[in-house]
Design a protein that fits this description.
alpha/beta, 4-stranded parallel sheet
Length: 168
């Protein structure tokens, strides 16, 4: 497994903020060892990525090309890449019953507060998105720097879960 690209699916409820951030960051820093994907357990009709999240990514020099909200149902079929790791990034999605994932990937929960929640003005929400992006980036940098031996299927789940305990 250490020589192939590891596919990581980030899940949230609507797939508009945290999971989109994580997908983009991992694809930016993954160095070909990791490929990020994202989905939501219940995206709203015509759901789009949060424009403030896209702005924060763009400002950090991270590509937003191709990012779009989608249901996790898309990843439970046989015609999509097999996931090696599925990470929930919001508490709502962590408590939901996930669909069957082909290949039985490792799973972990990395909780982050919703940067789009609340009644704050856009300037404060933009800062919340920036803080969330930076916290995710720190944790994802740890993941991409994990030695290959710790990414073998039998150790991937405990490695990912241990990273949830790292300071975010």
């Amino acid at each position: 497994m250490s020589e192939k690209t590891l596919n990581v699916l980030f899940l949230c409820t609507h797939n508009s903020a945290r999971s989109i951030l994580a997908e983009a960051i991992l694809n930016h820093i993954g160095r070909g060892r990791f490929k990020g994907f994202s989905a939501g357990s219940s995206p709203l009709a015509n759901q789009q990525p949060n424009p403030l999240g896209l702005k924060v990514l763009h400002n950090a020099g991270i590509s937003v090309e191709g990012l779009h909200s989608k249901s996790w149902d898309e990843f439970g079929t046989s015609n999509v890449p097999k996931m090696d790791l599925v990470i929930t990034v919001c508490d709502n999605a962590a408590g939901e019953v996930c669909p069957y994932w082909p290949g039985q990937p490792a799973t972990a929960h990395w909780g982050y507060a919703d940067p789009s929640a609340g009644d704050a003005d856009d300037a404060h929400k933009l800062e919340a998105f920036r803080q969330t992006m930076m916290a995710m980036k720190r944790r994802l940098e740890l993941l991409v720097n994990v030695p290959a031996a710790k990414l073998e299927k039998t150790r991937l789940q405990s490695t990912a879960r241990d990273l949830s305990k790292e300071n975010s």
